[in-house]
Amino acid sequence: MSVPIKVSKALEEVWQWKEEAWQEVAHLPLRQALRKRMEIAERTARELGFEPVRSVHPIAKVAEVPGKYRTKRKRT
After folding, report:
1. Helices 30-47 and 9-25 sit at what angle, rounded to 10 degrees?
2. Running DSSP on this structure, what letter comes out for residue 73?
3. What does the DSSP 8-state code read for residue 27?
4. Strand segments (E) across 1-76
5. Domain spans, the chain
6. Which residue from 20, 33, 40, 70 could staple onto 28, CB 3.0 to 4.6 Å apart?
7. Residues 18-76: tens digit of each pLDDT
8. Nearest CA among 63, 43, 59 for reference residue 51
9. Would you put residue 72 in left (φ > 0), alpha (ψ -120 to 50) or beta?
10. Longest CA span, the chain
11. Beta-carbon-side half-sphere exposure of residue 15 (alpha carbons within 13 Å)
């Protein structure tokens, strides 16, 4: 017999918000979806009086994966 788990209303609201945010970009390819979410986040931050910080890496690079991972070895 399992005991029902109580879920807070706040957590349910977060789940609903996440679902709505996903639905806004679900039809887009990954790169475009990331770009749109970042644009929406920046607009929201500005509306709330925050100045968004620009990332060192351009958004176009977020979804890219390098071909090989390299590490530089220290010469002794």
Report:
1. 120
2. P
3. T
4. none
5. 29-64
6. 33
7. 999 999 999 999 889 989 998 888 888 889 888 766 665 555 455 555 555 555 555 55
8. 43
9. beta
10. 63
11. 6
